Amino acid sequence: MGAVQPLTNWAGNITFGARRVLRPRSTDELRDLVAAATEMRVLGSGHSFNRLADTGGDLLTLADLPRTVEIGPDRRTVRVDGGIRYGELAARLHAEGLALHNMASLPHISVAGAVATATHGSGVRHGNLATAVRGIEVVRADGELVTLTRGDADFPGAVTALGALGVVVALTLDVHPAFELRQYVYDNLPATSVRDHLADILADGYSVSLFTRWTGNHVDMVWLKRLEPMTGDYFGATPADGPRHPVPGMPAENCTRQDGVPGPWHERLPHFRMEFTPSSGAELQSEWHVPRAQAAAAIEAVAGLRERVAAVLQICEIRTIAADDLWLSPNYRRDSLALHFTWIADTEAVLPVVADLERALGPLGARPHLGKIFTTAPADGYPRLADFAALARRFDPSGTFRNEFLDRLLG
C-alpha cells in the first residue's frame, strides 16, 4: 500500500479522492484488507468516465494478484483472476486453441471491470462480455469469500454489479474453439442505405460497427468483422484504400488489421492492438442503448441534433448487442442498438449536449452505459434497479463499497 499521488482515470477527467491505494498480492491478503476497511472501491483499468470508482477511503487494485488462467477439464470454461486484462487472456486462450465469444474495442481493459459495467463488443447474435460469465467469486465487506454460479437466484444481479457487492477476485467464463476472422473497412456509406437497409447492414458480419461524425449525409466508415470473405462495394460504400483509425487524425497502425486477410479472433475482434496505446486518453465518452426495434428512430433523433453533436464530437460508433438477463445490463431482456459518443475533452461543453441527447433518446427507452458520462438518473430504464439495491444491502450492509455515485444511483 502507499500514499496516493494525484491519481486519475485513463481519460484524465476524474481525479480520485482516495487516501491510499492498496495492492494485495494474494487473496488472503486482500480479504484481510477488505475486512479492515470502512470505505473502499476497486480500480480496474481506470476506463470509466464518471466517478463510479471514486472514494474518499481506499482504492484497491488487483493488478498484483497472481495471474490465473485455468482451463476447465471439458475445455468449455476458463477461470481467471480479477486483475487480468482481455488482451493477455485472449492470447493465452488462443495458444490453447480456445476463444471468447466477443471482445470490446480495447483489449487493454480488465475482465472484472468490463464485466461489472456490461462492456460489450458488437453483433446481433452476441451478448455483452458479461454474458460469458458462468461463475463469480466475490469478497464481501466482512472479508468472506462467496461464489455464485449461473442458475443461482442472485447471479443475474451479481455479475454486472458496478463493484457494489465486493471485490471480484475470480471469474469463470465460457470459452469456445478458436476461429479466424477477416476485417474490412468501407468508406462513405450513404444515408439512404442506412435508412433503407439498416437491419441488413448491422447483421452482415460477426461484428459490425458504423462510425460517423454526424457532419454529412453519410456514415464515415463501416467496420466489418466476418468469417467469410467479401469483395466489391457495400450498400453504396466503397472499400477503404488503406488502414483506418476510428478517430480522425489518429495513427492507423494502432488498429487491428483491416484488409480482409484472415487472422486469429483476438487480433480482429478488438479495434485496437494490445501492443499500442490506442489514443492519448484526451476524450470523454457517453453511450446509450435503445431497443433494436427503435434503431431507425434513434438514429433519426441524433441526426436532428447533428450540429450540436458534431461541434463537440470526435467520433460516434453504432453497434448491436443481443439481449440478456443481467439486472444492470443495458441489454436486459431486449436486443439493443448502442450509440457510443467519443467527445472532445471539454466537460463544460459536452454536458449540455449529453442532456440534449438524453431528452431526444429518452422517449425511445434509452439506457445509459453506467461507466460513462450521463446526467439523467437511469431508474426508469433499469427495471431491476430496486432489486439490485436490495442485493447490495445484503452483501454490504455497512456500505463499505458505496460511494456518492452509487448513492445517487441506488438511493
Automatic annotation (TrEMBL):
Q: Name one GO molecular function term.
A: FAD binding
- Give the UniProt keywords, A-Z: Oxidoreductase
- The protein's superkingdom reads Bacteria
Q: Where is the FAD-binding PCMH-type domain?
A: 14-178
Q: Name one GO cellular component term.
A: membrane
Q: What is this protein called?
A: Xylitol oxidase
